[in-house]
TrEMBL record:
It catalyses: adenosine 3',5'-bisphosphate + H2O = AMP + phosphate. Keywords: Magnesium, Metal-binding. It holds the Pfam family Inositol_P. Its cofactor is Mg(2+). This is 3'(2'),5-bisphosphonucleoside 3'(2')-phosphohydrolase. GO terms for molecular function: 3'(2'),5'-bisphosphate nucleotidase activity; metal ion binding. InterPro entries: CysQ/Inositol_MonoPase, Inositol_monoP_metal-BS, Inositol_monophosphatase-like. Residues 1-23 are annotated as: Disordered. PANTHER family: 3'(2'),5'-BISPHOSPHATE NUCLEOTIDASE 1. It comes from Natronoglycomyces albus.
Length: 274
């Protein structure tokens, strides 16, 4: 099969499409954008009256698009996707011996995607490389018209302090650890959907931190954590240990991300709550 890498770019792509010789991070951003545009179109086309249908079709549409493009542009790489089956699923073993694995969440914040007017949902595309971890990442926020990339840090860290510390949490499952840490620090909780949207709120300065506990998988955090770490933010497990990806079991149930100057006091407040 001819891969898109082998084709003449001018013959088959417009300016917005991924290009065969894109860097990994440029490809991640182009694919996250592409999936995001498809999700916006689907939302416009079928509306919100049948939210289950919108969620299911959105998940599948974005997954299929990302998978086809990754197979075409990076045919030698493995994929771990939330929506995957077989080799791309959490049970697939090909990724465990691969040197390069794309960890994707085609639609993060599925619930919010199916609710009219909400913009807290995202598309995650990250590349994990053996012995290096996450080396390229992009998080598209299609309804916010933004895409965050691991090679382009947003505004300088000093500009992003609030008088009262703001901690983003799940709007449906706010963890007790975050409530307790907020009480210790005199912080306020900011409920929001989607791990990608919450980490984006951290790196763009809308909030100071994101605390999650109680369950999550590698695809929920790989790309947003890749963007945050590349930009100089703190991101770790709640106990302060490193977030490790492409594990045999991709369950990765908790994380904390924040401004680096807040990390010590926030981790300490969380530790007191454990
Ligand atoms: N306890 C839990 N177990 C498994 N996944 C969870 C979880 N809590 C949150 N998540 C996942 O983390 C993402 C962000 O959740 P939240 O908006 O509640 O913060 C969602 O991803 P998806 O939308 O991709 O399923 C959600 O399914
Ligand atoms: Mg998710």
């Amino acid at each position: 099969m001819t891969s898109k890498r082998d084709r003449d770019p001018a013959s088959c792509h417009d300016d917005a499409s991924p290009q065969p010789h894109d860097s990994d991070v440029a490809l991640a951003a182009a694919l996250a954008d592409g999936a995001g545009q498809k999700l916006l179109s689907l939302r416009n086309r079928i509306g919100f009256s049948d939210s289950r249908r919108l969620r299911d079709e959105g998940d599948q549409l974005a997954h299929q698009y990302l998978l086809e493009e990754l197979v075409a542009f990076r045919p030698g790489d493995a994929v771990l996707s939330e929506e995957g089956r077989g080799q791309t699923s959490r049970y697939g073993t090909e990724r465990l011996t691969a040197d390069r694995v794309w960890i994707i969440d085609p639609l993060d914040g599925t619930r919010e995607y199916s609710e009219e007017g909400r913009d807290d949902w995202a598309v995650h595309v990250a590349l994990w490389e053996r012995a290096r971890g996450i080396t390229a990442a992009a998080v598209a926020l299609p309804a916010q018209g933004a895409t965050l990339r691991s090679d382009q840090a947003p505004v300088p860290i000093e500009q992003r302090k609030h008088s009262v510390i703001r901690i983003a949490v799940s709007r449906t499952r706010p963890p007790v650890e975050a409530k307790s840490a907020a009480a210790t620090l005199g912080a306020e909780l900011v409920p929001m959907g989607s791990a990608g949207a919450k980490l984006a709120a951290v790196v763009t300065g809308k909030v100071d931190a994101y605390v999650h506990a109680g369950g999550q998988f590698e695809w929920d955090s790989a790309a947003p954590v890749g963007v945050a770490l590349a930009g100089g933010w703190h991101a770790s497990r709640l106990d302060g240990s490193k977030l490790v990806y492409n594990q045999p079991d991709p369950y990765l149930p908790d994380l904390v991300a924040c401004r680096p100057d807040l990390a010590t006091s926030l981790l300490e407040a969380i530790r007191e709550s454990l």
